[in-house]
Design brief:
Blueprint lengths: L4 E2 L5 E2 L1 E3 H9 L1 H9 L2 E3 L4 H18 L5 H10 L16 H18 L11 E10 L11 E12 L16 E10 L14 H10 L3 E8 L10 E4 L11 E8 L2 E5 L2 H7 L7 H8 L1 E4 L3 E2 L2 E8 L2 H24 L8 E2 L2 E2 L4 H7 L3 H7 E3 L2 H4 L7
Parallel strand pairs: 3-6, 7-8
Antiparallel strand pairs: 1-2, 4-17, 5-6, 6-7, 8-14, 9-10, 9-13, 10-11, 11-12, 15-16
Length: 378
């Protein structure tokens, strides 16, 4: 009976995934530690907990006709308010900052969702799992499946302006959407999402060629002159969901202009004339109606060749993993400098460098009950 390996629970494992393949390609020894032995990082990083809560609240938004998502996120994030061991990044800072970032992101999504090809209702399916046998009938690798859980599968308007025209004449157009939170912007180049390795893998699994990222960028709180902000509701000729520049902060209000060069123009205006200039060239809106958080949507079309290449990559990984299991050899291939600098990888620090204090603080060995949940995290 073909399988990838037998885990520490004694169960033959037959499911491969994009995430597992990334572990293996980074370092087979890491794959062995995590997938075979069941060493798991503790849920103590804010970015993981935050991302999960945000995705679940977006799903709540769609399943409740676009209502109550801000309250839903607040409720989910409240579960971690008193947790003492959560690690925050410099942007996240603390629980309160993440609450503000998250509620702003949900408000922003609610504002722009009507313009996105992600419809409310039955035409948007969340957390759908797909699986595909990679080597059908093969005596060595048959029955091993590559599987993935897609954040959203949409059936949307084939002519939606946020999608690249592919000549679709059907009543609806299937679309894969992956939700990401990040501290950096996604590239603005149209169609670039189609070249992401994870989305290509999903395209191969599902047969759906239209893919997209719903990309939330975390930004530090605190608006100042020159800050890029996004409008959460319409004011005057300013559109909801569009980005503008802060020209002036006025107590609980901000003055917004449409372009950077207008900020430079204010520097040329005499002090006693600036108010009149602002009233002519800027729009005054409440601070509560803008956010520094950013939402990007980038779609692309995965070619058949590109999808098949992603499938061949999954096949390569499966063959190599099976061979590692059969030989009992899981090479340690972590690196410490460009182009393979893994010094910040938790598995490298805990198991290669042998930092026992770090290991005890950051890792847990999965028991029989929780081992089956490992794939769900992918």
């Amino acid at each position: 009976m073909p399988y990838l390996y037998i885990n520490s629970k004694g169960v033959p494992w037959k499911k491969h995934s994009y995430s597992a393949g990334n572990d293996f390609d980074q370092c087979p020894y890491k794959y062995y530690l995590r997938r075979v032995l069941g060493w798991k990082e503790k849920d103590n990083k804010a970015r993981f907990l935050f991302g999960r809560a945000l995705e679940e609240s977006i799903e709540f938004y769609h399943s409740h006709n676009g209502e109550g998502a801000v309250q839903d996120f607040s409720r989910r994030w409240a579960e971690y308010k008193d947790a003492q061991n959560i690690a925050y990044t410099d942007v996240e800072k603390n629980w309160e900052t993440c609450l503000k970032i998250g509620t702003d992101m949900i408000r922003l999504y609610s504002a722009v969702q009507p313009k996105l090809p992600i419809p409310i209702g039955a035409n948007s399916i969340f957390q759908r799992e797909y699986a595909k046998e990679v080597f059908p009938g093969d005596p060595n690798y048959g029955e091993i499946e590559d599987a993935g859980k897609v954040d959203i599968v949409c059936y949307t308007d084939p002519k939606h302006p946020a999608l690249i025209d592919n000549g679709c004449q059907a009543a609806v157009r299937p679309l894969i959407v992956d939700i990401k939170t990040s501290a950096v912007d996604f590239p603005e180049q149209q169609g670039i999402a189609a070249f992401d390795s994870q989305l290509r893998r999903y395209s191969w699994l599902t047969g759906i060629r239209d893919v997209a990222f719903l990309w939330f960028k975390k930004s530090p709180l605190g608006i100042k002159r020159g800050s890029n902000v996004t409008l959460l509701e319409s004011f005057g000729n300013l559109e909801v969901g569009k980005e503008y520049i802060t020209a002036k902060i006025d107590d609980d209000f901000v003055w917004l202009v449409m372009a950077d060069f207008l900020i430079r123009e204010t520097d040329k205006v005499k002090a006693d004339e600036q108010q009149a200039w602002l009233e002519k060239n800027a729009v005054r809106v409440p601070k509560s109606s803008v956010t520094k958080q950013r939402l990007q949507f980038n779609s692309g079309i995965v070619t058949e060749q590109s999808a098949e290449d992603a499938g061949r990559n999954a096949a390569r990984q499966i063959v190599q993993i099976v061979n590692c299991w059969k030989t009992g050899n899981w090479p340690q291939t972590f690196g410490i400098r460009y182009p393979r600098n893994d010094r910040d990888d938790a598995y490298f620090r805990a198991f290669v460098l042998g930092d026992e204090v770090f290991k005890q603080h950051n890792f847990v060995k999965l028991d029989e009950q929780s081992f089956d949940e490992l794939f769900q995290e992918d």
